[in-house]
Amino acid sequence: MIWYSIDTWIVIIGALTAIACALPGSFLVLRQMSMMGDAISHAVLPGLAIAFLVTGARASLSMFVGAAVVGVLTAVFTQWISSWGKVDRGASMGIVFTTLFAIGLLLIVQAADHVDLDPGCVLYGSIEVAAWDTAWTFSIGDLLVEVPRSAIVLGIVSLLNLFIVIAFFKELRISSFDPDLATTQGINAQWMHYLLMTQVAVTTVAAFEAVGSIIVIAMLVTPAATAHLLTDRLGLMLILASIIGALSALIGHLLALVVPPLIGFESTTTTGMMAVATGLFFLLAWLFAPRYGWITRVLFKRSVVSAEAEGS
Amino acid sequence: MKSSRMKAGMGRVLGLLLAVVVPMQSGMAQSGPRSFSSLQDRGFDWPSFESIWEVVTLQQYNTRLVVASTFILGLASGLVGCFLLLRKRSLMGDALSHACLPGIGIAFILGVTLFGEGKSLAVLLAGASVTGLLGVGLVLLIRKTSRIKDDAAMGIVLSVFFGAGVAVLGMVQNMPSASAAGLEYFIYGKTASMIFRDFLLLSGVAVAALICSILLLKEFTLLCFDEGFARSQGWPVSLLDVLMLILVAAVTVVGLQSVGLILIIAFLITPAAAARFWTNDLRTMLILSGVIGGVSGWLGAGVSALLPRLPAGAVIVLMAAAIFFFSMIFGASRGILRRSMSMRRLKRKVGRQHLLRAVFEIQEKTWKEESLRPANVDISYDQLLHHRTWSPRQLKKLVKRAQGEDHIEWVDWRTLRLSESGFGEAYRTTRNHRLWEIFLFTHADIAASHVDRDADSVEHLLSTEMVRELESKLKMASMPESPHEIGISRKEAV
């Protein structure tokens, strides 16, 4: 295994994605809306397609705006269907995102002659390519630093999310745990919901252009759920989720470099391995978390039972 | 209307288009090709009558095959989708179908190393089923053994398994000995290029799913509606849960390789949700959901065969969604129109009963103060206004409506009284209210000062039989006294 500077950038991009996702993701997990990331990342396809058909170019900004708007609309439509039609929220989410994806697919096929817009590229992304796309070069002493464009974008999104979470920490917390209490305290829980959804949509769109949607879904939910098993405090949960996500990016990339040669293959997809790495962290927490781990609790119960038996 | 707008200028209507995209998507499917052909200068011909007839009557072998396959798949997934919906697990199909991917990759590798040929359908399907079921089992296990909820568990399994699948496929693509091309059919489907073998497989699984659901109908019904009761009756709830998910997995896996991931997710959710609007009876819902799934498969496949450049999977999803939105608005049992109408009717009834009771209570007070015989005496409008917490506008509307129903008549401009029929109705309403209050007071141990509110939430729904039962239980035939003082708190408030 040889480590190039490009590998550093892949890990940095992955870590920035993880931090950008972990902040809104923690609230998604607490609000039991984890599948929203999945829904939004599928549903933005018509936004991309319409932006392309309107501007006629793969300009990043218009596509970004189109996708983010449709992403927020996914949340709005889901809300409408579940409240007007009295449909289970999971089901209405499923209906909305499959419908929007189908519309997107139709639009893309209509324009297929002119577009290299490939749904596969949206789903998998390629962090390796993103790392080569340099936007800014500077040097520190002899060392030439070439910053990839996606690192800058994801850095900005991470900062933005951090800013929103800090600025609205109290509001987000109360409206996540107790929307009724939030309302009595004069906080508009509905607005907080849509603020969060906008955050998720913007993050998803910004990240999947660089790294693909699959890692976005993984980074939104899995590190946050892992942190949820480790702590009861929201602030700590946000920090832990970010750290676990960033570590997963590092370990995922190491796995992608190390595992394929071991079993006789040339290479593999880094983003896939990063998703697997988040899963490994979750597995550890699920089984061995100090307070909420499965095995920890079983052992604790057993020790209590035997202590009682001795006592009596 | 929409297509002309889009022709006029795509850029300007972007916002509008997005706003109407969901309710209009069935129109979208048809207006799409026209508008974009004009935009990009590509010719587009409407299909001739002969070609429409050819598709409708299923004369071409390929059309026949595709339509039949999607019809059967829609039928089967609509059926099992009902159980998922009622169990509030609609997105399980989503998690399951994503979790199949690593199985496909691993099965391909194993196939190549063991038999030298990786793309044997049986091996790939077996692999997909194994990891799919493993993923779903993990979701159940995570939910059961940790504080992580259903949704997060599904999100974790979905993303981690799909990530693993992407990683495995990424390795396979560089495999020297075999070509992995074609594996992506499992994600995007190949609806239009199905072969007879796919049809046989689909119908086999569909029939099996149908038979299993019929055999286990009673068990599944109880599991959907009252899991706790099923468990207390000593039924193997977890086993039934797993059985249900195996059915879902079977439909998902065969659907996945023929029509693709997104379509199979839509097929599991949308027809069941649409059927729910039409009925409250599970059997009817199962049949209806199967039919809706089947019909949208048939229509979608037909339209996509007629018009060029329309992928069948996407059109079928849109057909199902169109049926869903139609059902959501017009559904006979839970549709929006139906519910808002009955809500309005109930609101009117409640308003009328409140008004009549208020008038009666004021009249009653007059008899008592002036020791008169119960009779329909005149009351003043201001007294009525202060009796309940009505706003002047609300009361004006109520009185106007009651006037139209011939319950209330004006004596002069500040005084009104009940009509003949209104007096009878007011008597009955007040009596029902008090009977219910006394029942709550004597039988349900609710304090006299609290019964007014509680009675209010039930009395408007009391049926005649219920009132008879109350009468016999309380042994009261005439008008009872109110168990609490009327209007005291409101007077103070005023």
Q: Give the count of helical stretches of chain A.
A: 15
Question: What is the CATH topology descriptor of chain A?
Answer: ABC transporter involved in vitamin B12 uptake, BtuC
Q: Which chains make the largest contact?
A: A-B, 81 and 80 residues
Helices and strands of chain B: which structural class? Answer: mainly alpha
Report the major sheet of chain A: 2 strands, antiparallel
Q: Please report which band the strand proportion of chain A falls in: under 5%, 5-15%, 15-25%, 25-35%, 35-45% or over 45%.
A: under 5%
Subcellular location (chain A): Cell membrane
Membrane topology (chain A): Multi-pass membrane protein
Main location (chain A): membrane
Pfam families (chain A): ABC-3 (PF00950)
Q: Main traits of this protein?
A:
heterodimer; A: 312 residues; mainly alpha; B: 494 residues; three-stranded antiparallel sheet; 23 helices; disordered N terminus; disordered C terminus; transmembrane helix (chain A); Metal ABC transporter permease (chain A); membrane (chain A); transport (chain A)
Describe this structure in words.
The complex is a heterodimer of chains A (312) and B (494). Chain A has a single domain, classed as Orthogonal Bundle (ABC transporter involved in vitamin B12 uptake, BtuC), CATH 1.10.3470.10. In chain A, 79% of the residues lie in helices and 4% in strands. Chain A contains 15 helices and 2 strands. A two-stranded antiparallel sheet of chain A has the order 1-2. The longest helix of chain A is centred in the C-terminal third of the chain and has 29 residues, at 234-262. Chain A is globular, with a radius of gyration of 21 Å. The N and C termini of chain A lie far apart (60 Å). The mean pLDDT of chain A is 85. Chain B is mostly helical. Chain B has helices spanning 2-8, 14-20, 25-40, 49-56, 61-86, 92-115, 121-145, 150-172, 185-188, 196-215, 217-225, 227-232, 237-259, 261-276, 282-306, 312-330, 336-369, 381-387, 392-404, 420-443, 451-459, 464-474, 488-493; strands spanning 379-380, 408-412, 415-418. Chain B has a 3-stranded antiparallel beta sheet. Residues 1-43 and 488-494 of chain B have low confidence and may be disordered. Helices cover 73% and strands 2% of the residues of chain B. In chain B, helix 20 crosses helix 22 (464-474). The chains are: A mainly alpha (312), B mainly alpha (494). At the A-B interface, helix 2, helix 3, helix 4, helix 5 and helix 6 of A face helix 2, helix 3, helix 8, helix 14 and helix 16 of B.
